[in-house]
Amino acid sequence: MSEAKKLAAEKAIQYVEDNMIVGVGTGSTVAYFIDALAAWKDRIQGAVSSSEQSTARLQAHGIDVIDLNAAGPLSLYVDGADECDPDKCLIKGGGAALTREKIIAEASERFICIVDPSKQVPVLGKFPLPVEVIPMARSLVARKLLELTGGQPVWRDGVITDNGNVILDIHNLAITDPVAMERAINQIPGVVSVGLFARRPADVVIVGGQPPLVL
Ligand code: 5RP
Asked: Where does the record place the catalytic residues (predicted)?
């Protein structure tokens, strides 16, 4: 699958233009994108990063990392996903970076999602749905998620997000109405964000292959 991830990432470089500030996601697919972006480092202004992990890789390539508050609206965001449905709705957060990823997706005019073919699903939910939660609300939110979704929330023990919070992964879901589920989970006090990207889905999905598929 890593070859497919690389092919998707390299295809996404076609969307980069001179002088851009590029929004950059997190994960192994995005790592290939960052490596390819290195060839553009003197042609772009820099990148807005969604995680400490991506920041380190961008800086190692000499790409300037710019604060989103200074950058303003972005024209392009490139990120991976854990699952992608036919409407380009996504599950994200396998790498625990969902909140910053969602913020950058919202700030961006165009969201290009880069995946290998295993990420394409007819219905979201086989991959456990990540929810970032304020630590003191962990048990409360887990009970509410169980009630609300019927899935099984599991604490991702040992993981603290870049924002100092914890992750609950909801197992055994079949998400037939992703927009409604995203909205409902967002209402629970203590939830910082949910890794459902449905209200703001991807605009373009690139599935790695020979040749890559652009959806
Ligand atoms: C990180 C994410 C990633 O985009 C997602 O987990 C996919 O990762 P990978 O490209 O390693 O398969 O949402 O929070």
From this structure: 101 (proton acceptor)
